[in-house]
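Materials and Methods. Structural model of MFS transporter. The 418-residue sequence of MFS transporter from Cryobacterium adonitolivorans was retrieved and submitted for structure prediction as follows.
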Amino acid sequence: MTPPARSAERTADRPDVAVRRARFAVAMLFFTNGALFANLIPRYPGIKSELGLSNAEFGFAVAAFPLGALIAGLAAGMLIRRFRSSRVAVVSTMLTAVGLILAGIAPSWAALAAGIFLAGAMDSITDVAQNSHGLRVQRLYKRSILNSFHAVWSIGAVTGGLLGAAAAQLDVPRGQHLIVSAVTFSLFALYSYRFLLAGPEPLEPEATAPQQHAATPTLSRGRWGKWLVLGALVVIAASGAVVEDAGASWSAIYLSDALSASALVAGLGFIALQGMQFIGRLLGDGLVDRFGQRAVARTGGAIVFLGMGTALAFPSIPGTIVGFGLAGFGVATLIPAAMHAADELPGFRAGTGLTIVAWLLRLGFLFSPPIIGAIADLSQLRYGLLLVPLAGLLVVFFAPVLATRVRGRTAAAATTAP
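The predicted structure was written out as tokens:
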């Protein structure tokens, strides 16, 4: 018989088959989530042109996505506790796909906003559910793997962006294109369900989680301290959201309208952002384990400021694509870091900190499109995009609330079927 201590050590070194399968399944959910929405983004210039929308009108339509997320997002924690994160993630993914189809075939501004609103509402629930399940798996690995899930999301976004850009270049009807995308990726989500972890969500995840230790522990104590820390984490996550949204909502329009790029080339700004974000997230877990979330986030914020700031100061098609790529690399670990830190923050019920950060980070998605659009109508879109390097500076300023190192703790056993 294998001694218990040696058995526990072997389990710690290599998670069992069920846990590894659960990691694959969560990664598939992240891939699906990224690919679904990214299919629509390269079609934005065509939608804006066909509906005759100004920059401000388009910005307000796109802002319906985070508005729906803000309205529905707080329900995510309750839904997860009642129905399990595995089930909630799959169902909300399929409903997100429905909203994207409606947006793609919208005959008016109101219909476009309604479709985007539905997609945003469901996406916010998907976001919390898949991150919640990913954190369950991470606790069983007893090391950081959350960034790898977000890296797979970036792969999905690049895949979806390439598919959408190709469909736009080939003039594939939007309805046909988005229906095929919705059905395909919904089937991926359904397939992943069979491999996710079994049982309800743990009531006290902090008891088994890899523990983040911040160098400013006094901020997380006391009645108001935890809310100050949570607020700072929201700013960090929302700053990452602003950068991601600029690439999603405006990169294709900026490249095509301001810099006269073709439909295919205009899609490369978003693809560059997501591709470099993928590389950053692929490297992120190792960097976080070695240097801590704080140093990685602070460096990332500086990269966003310098990369996108330079691209806007000296506008060109290649420089803009590179600038969006550097911005994506800089924000690669921000949202995972804020979510992880919020989920481990003492003083909140299980899943509450994660739900609040995932909910409020949508403020970045909500306010940045209309702000950038309004500035663009008053002057130039280039000036509106200055919000991106500003977000990088905010990250540098608030990074001290993040952890400086990670320490593992004992993990609970996993079960095999949802």
